[in-house]
Amino acid sequence: MKTLLLATAAAVALPCAAFAQSGSQTAGGDPGILTPERVYADPALAGPVARGVSLSPDGDLVAFLRSRDDDVNVLDLWAAPVAGGEPFKLVDARALVPEAGELSEAEIARRERMRISQRGVVEYSWDEQGRYILAPLEGDVFLAARADGSVRRLTETAADEIDAKVSPLGNYVSWVRDQDLVIYDLAAGREIPVTTDGEGVITWATAEFIAQEEMDRDTGYWWSPDERYIALQRTDESPVDIIPRLDITGGGATVIEQRYPRAGRPNAVVELYVHDRTANRRVKVDLGANPDIYLARVDWSADGRTLYVQRQSRDQKTLDLLAVDPATGASRVLTTQTAEAWVDLTHDFHALADGRFIWSSEESGWRHLYLHAADGSVIRPITTGEYAVKTLDGVNEETGAVFFTASMRDGREYPIEQQLFRASLNETATPVEITPRGGWWSAAVNGSGTAYVGNFSNVDTPPQSALYRADGTFVRWIEENALDADHPFAPYVARKQEPTFGTLQNAGETLVWQMTTPPGFDPSREYPVVMQVYGGPSGGGVRNAWQPATTQLLTEAGYVVFRLDNRGEGDRSVAFKTALHLRMGIPEVEDQVAAINYLRSLPFVDDDRIAAMGWSYGGFMTLHMLTEPAMGLTSAISGAPVTDWSLYDTHYTERFMSTPEANAEGYAASDILTRLDDLTGRLLLIHGMADDNVIFENTTRVLNALQEASVPFETMVYPGQRHGIRGNDRGLHLWRTYLDFLDRTIGSRAAD
Description:
The chain has 14 helices and 46 strands. About 3% of the residues have low confidence.
């Protein structure tokens, strides 16, 4: 369950009926009041936001994805010279493919797993020489030449080519078509099949459902640096249960025989092979005697002589790092991480040229980076302290600089902000702040560790992207996105309310919160409150960053908007994250009870008009909050909720809850059907009718139970929509539905 916040799933709720049908102005004619109609129109209110920004291997060019002015849901590929000059369009999606066709089910599912909702150029990749940029587009593959800007179409087939890559030296392009891996020789202009028996339940070179959805692994094959080898997985889904799923659209219904590995049930069998392109032969990698494991991560050594594989046990309490001989497939365990609750997967493994490697661990109670010798032994910690390393972003092996992001100030965690820091390979020392304090930074460091693309925002600054030298020196803007008079959000700035931040103490932990009040806020009045919640394992939602426009829709409707990151949420200490182990829905709700008690202590909060809203795990949370007597919510909106964890998938659910057999009490306590007699207020239940992640059955069982009990409730279902509600039209409908419900239950009509 990758994080899907309600505020970004398709936005959130709507203002009162007074301007439910208005355009850019309210009924009173004030153009400065933000409306749902403007939020779900082009151009995007956040301004020109660069996505997928990367620096060319030689450092001379920056590439990025940008939404079209005429359609925010279609992306083109742009580039900008580092030395200066205006950005230019490298791949025009509509010029190359004027009419977007239907994507294959495999590609639709893959994009759903990657949370890609746009069309056009949604991903791209460089070769390591920087000569080419590969741009898959609407199921076919295009190659842009750096030298002259020409774009070459490599495929034009009925089938989709998915997960396309340029080989490291730029001699080949590879992709998966019809469940088999194909490489394309650029010099010869011909395809070379690597596998040919992919069909039915057998798939080559593609990450299985669990890897895509829960393990943050979106690929199933890996080129060696010298292009001799390709490591590729083989997936056999025959052991996985078939869960018939109705895919209901506006034009009818189709029964999908989906193979869905529910908690406690069999997973797909995943094997790893190495294809030797020179010898044209394939060897199987020894992943151990137990086939019921997870292929977590695959990386190559710098010289291509060793394949590193992270093997995770089914119970996720053990993570082994294997060193594999690509010529024979023989493996040995270099080092192992274990935990009482679970071992998290990261992308923090980095192989160094001399055979040493960097890997992160939570053995200290916080995630930190460690330098390992080639034999796997720990040489020294690179970082220490009471904060968690979020990501390893890059390494400069010449200087020994190690770049990482963390939410930290002066050696202690500071959850609401994030910065880029520099540590050292050569000693354990106090990290150096590279980016300034006062907001939320992410960074993409180039391969040599000499420069980075920095992405920044805070509550006053929309997302910006720029190129910097490794020491933080500004080089050039990629997207300045200045909030000036020409910015799309400019008409609404005057009524934008900045959130305030604070903390609460509960169960021995410090919980962070943010609150946004309506325009013209009068502390002597009483206001209704909307509690936005996700609540599950994630990066947290309380942060000093640019806020979703939908938050302003809620404040314009007269609501105080409140959000608390409860235990289990956010990249914080091991103790904070594992508080929900084996008992999902208990510590998280306890923390939300502390939050609502704090809200009710405030003189400007109307105690009897508090609602909650959330999507996915947030939908699970809102149902539990609405059935918690200590909260006493007036109403709640639950979107795409898990209502019984035995219906959800293996890797996610078993990580936190073990199996239904081993933790029957925990599963029973989290099942919402056992709590429906305790509803404290009105419920709006929402779900996409083609959801292949949180299966629609999660909602229908609640509909049935409430109807059998003759309990009134409201529901909204979306034909053809999966785990998120996509597109401006449906997004607008969703927010109109939200705001109408809130207005009737805690808003102006409820107060009449």
